[in-house]
Amino acid sequence: MLTVDASRVATKAKVDIAEHEGNINSLIGEMLPLISHKIEPEYLETTDETIQAIMNIGVTEIIVGEYLKELANDEEEASDFSAGSIKIGENKSVQTRNTRAKEWIDTGWNKLKPYMKSTDYFYFGVG
């Protein structure tokens, strides 16, 4: 069984848990079933603590990345003004968050690769 702790997500994302816990828990609730569906059942039910730890870290990293993307999107909407293809006030922290988000997501999926179903073509995250 996969488990993700909101406080670990907040720590890795470098956000205040008190301010973000509800949103993080909502994201965990949305993402965990989708990610679990990608994993071979034998690994979800394993008692091997090493495999469990690797998978839980991978899932946590994916959720950190997805949460950082949400924060970057919210921040971009609040700070940018655009008219056609011209964007005024592009925020460098949004770019940084998006870069960090992609790195977290890629790292998380790479940790899960050995445990993923080989015939499941539903895929999100990195290609």
List the topology elements.
Elements: H1 6-13, H2 17-38, H3 41-44, H4 49-79, E1 81-83, E2 86-88, H5 92-112
Antiparallel strand pairs: 1-2
Helix pairs in contact: 1-2, 1-4, 2-4, 4-5
In short:
The chain is mostly helical. It contains 5 helices and 2 strands; from the N terminus they run H-H-H-H-E-E-H.
Describe the protein.
The chain is mainly α. 68% of the residues lie in helices and 5% in strands. It has 5 helices and 2 strands, in the order H-H-H-H-E-E-H. The chain has helices at 6-13, 17-38, 41-44, 49-79, 92-112; strands spanning 81-83, 86-88. Helix 2 (17-38) crosses helix 4. The two termini are 25 Å apart. The mean pLDDT is 87.
Jot down its keywords:
single chain; 127 residues; mainly alpha; two-stranded antiparallel ribbon; 5 helices
Count of alpha and pi helical runs: 5
Alpha-carbon distance between the termini?
25 Å
Q: Using DSSP, what is the number of strands?
A: 2
Q: Could you give the order of strands across the largest sheet?
A: 1-2
SSE succession? HHHHEEH
Catalogue the unreliable spans: none
Structural class: mainly alpha
Largest sheet: 2 strands, antiparallel
> Residue share in helices?
55-70%
Question: Whole-number average pLDDT?
Answer: 87
Tell me the overall shape.
Answer: elongated
Per DSSP, what share of the residues sits in E-state strands of 2 or more residues? under 5%
**Global Rg:** 16 Å
